[in-house]
Here is the input.
Amino acid sequence: MSKKTPKLTLRLTGIINLLSIGLLVATIYGFLGRLHWFLDLFSHFRVQYMQLCLPLIAFYLWKRMNKRAVAVVLIAAINYAFVLPLYFGKPDAPDTKPIRAMLMNLNAGNGNTEQVLEAIVKFDPDLLLLEEVTPKWAHELAGLDEKYKYKIAEPQAGCFGIMLLSKHPLERGEVIEVGTAGVPSMVCEAYFPQGTVSVIGTHPLPPIGAEYANHRNNQLAELPSIVKEQTHPVLLIGDLNVTPFSPWFGKLVSESGLKNSMKGFGFQPSWIGNAFLKIPLDHVLHSEDIIIHNRMIGPNVGSDHLPVIVDFSMR
Here is the structure.
């Protein structure tokens, strides 16, 4: 055995120890997101923390460092405890043809109109919420008006234009500002054959600094009161710029009484801005009276977000 081998092993063990401590710190920081915007960023990557734990556990077992292996298993288990519930609670198949809703963050700078239109034709949603709708996008998607006769639109230069298209009547539609960011959201009633649904479409700012994070949190905090004002079952749809693992998302769900449509269908990351750090930022939340029968992620349409499609019915 080379004299260098023990030194290399010692260095490798030191690196593994540092990675283990780093994962422990990141895991703890993820619980403290209500204290500071930067700490909240650590809450979004529970799946990645769990995945990174696996080779560390294997290394410790190989070196027979069993106590350290157990410690890392506990770190992995803590993170996976946030993810595992998403795989349980899948509802039964619908008795009748369900209603399909689709969310698509177009990306204001995306020029792949053909891919976008192909995805819309392929999945054929009854209700379609588009975000990052610029005047250019509104012009390029004007051909959808023949199929989607009902529309509420607020195109904007930049990343916060919004548009709702429907095959079924939309009534009492209005564009509103929620929170302090000054970006548009929309509220309306959609009249489906199964019944009426209140639709809330929204797109908070990304938490890329203290100011933007505060705007996002204010918007998320005001949404429950808007939900409670509705007299029909609610669909809240949008790129919320937060994952289900953030305490701010938990606060939104608990105070609004809405449910996460991802539950029963597993981890479905929709933001693909980074190959390893894919996370679910795009959401469809729903009232108890709405049953989600299927939830899936659509194809890459040139945006940094993937479409989200849900099939639902009314109780």
Remarks:
- The helical segments are 4-29, 37-41, 46-62, 66-83, 113-123, 135-140, 210-229, 247-256.
- The first helix runs from residue 4 to 29.
- Residues 50 and 80 are 6 Å apart (CA to CA).
- The chain has eight helices and twelve strands.
